[in-house]
Amino acid sequence: MDAHTNAARTPAAATYPISIRINGEQRQFEVEAWVTLLDLLRERLSMTGTKKGCDHGQCGACTVLVGGKRINSCLTLAVMQNGKDIVTVEGLADGDRLHPLQQAFIDHDAFQCGYCTPGQLCSAIGLMKEGEARTVAEVRELMSGNVCRCGAYPQIVAAVTQVMGLAEHKDNPDRPYIPGTVPA
């Protein structure tokens, strides 16, 4: 028996039907049990805004909103999100009008290489919805799961706190603001 014959006899992997609302659009899929939400978004839908960084949930580049809560899409299986409402970075703007946080990122030069930006934006929107951050220090702490390799943390925090209406000097007026070099 040759390899071609064996391949013809090997049953296809089982797939599972799922229905997910992505950026306001209801979508149907047949997915294998091991497909992550990140791979579903990037590889099957070509929604490459959500980035694959570490693929271990350590960098936050793949952060999306599920039911308004931020999650690392590399750590969840697509079948686990059946029936859920997913928002990716592609779903933040309203047509040509940017989300206020996207505009604040531009205003504060909060993206450098831009690789982490989609995850930072989704994480910050989730943070704002959680309502746990009341100070600049809490914003820094609650955004600490999102890694920026360029070191744009001060600009990112400035953008988030601007949209939240927090004054940068509210935490510690003596803390110097050094753009681009100080990690959160």
Automatic annotation (TrEMBL):
Its cofactor is [2Fe-2S] cluster. The keyword Iron applies. InterPro entries: 2Fe-2S-bd, 2Fe-2S-bd_dom_sf, 2Fe-2S_ferredoxin-like_sf, 2Fe-2S_ferredoxin-type, 2Fe2S_fd_BS, Aldehyde_Oxdr_Iron-Sulfur, Beta-grasp_dom_sf. One of its GO terms (molecular function) is 2 iron, 2 sulfur cluster binding. Keywords: 2Fe-2S, Iron, Iron-sulfur, Metal-binding, Oxidoreductase. Residues 16-92 form the 2Fe-2S ferredoxin-type domain. It comes from the Bacteria. This is (2Fe-2S)-binding protein. It comes from Massilia violaceinigra.
